[in-house]
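User: Teach me something about this protein's shape.
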Amino acid sequence: MLLAPPADLGYFALFGLLFAESSGLPVPGETALLAAGVLAGAGHLSLWTVIVVAIGAAILGDNLGFAIGRRGGRRLLLRPGRMARWRWRSLTRAERFFARHGHRAVFLARWVPVARYLTPLTAGAALMPWRRFLAYNFAGALAWCASLALLAALVGPAAAASVSGLGLAATAAGALAGAARAIVARRRAAPAAV
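Assistant: First, the predicted structure itself:
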């Protein structure tokens, strides 16, 4: 029989993966949260500790991602050079979007895999007010971490796999909708053939 790793190691791994993902790195934070929830449901970890660790990691990581976007991302997008006009237009659109819908985007991005790690960076670069970001980030982290951990703990591995599949399906649907929108916009902008 193999030696069982200490439970504390599970909490550190959960914190590290969720913090890294929330900071802007494409790592499996959601998978770590679901796995920790399943382990809590089996009695190997404390469910409430899993939820608290996950919320803390998500909030701290998002705030780091926001700061990186505010300082470095904005500077990167505004620098002159190749594709500067496209980057400036993209930043202007992001600023308008976050001025109107930033609170919803920050809260709901938690449930969409790629948006989960890109939204804090973009919100920072788009100069979303930090206090507004923090409030919706806290609410989103609380709802997302608690709901996923509880679902995984109560229903088990099958629920965890379903949640991951739904998140990937939502990401794919969003990517397809974005691609369709870009194609339609290009066709409308193209001069009519004579």
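Now, about its shape. The longest helix spans residues 157-189. The CA atoms of residues 33 and 53 lie 10 Å apart. If you'd like, I can walk through any region in more detail.
User: That's plenty for now, thanks!
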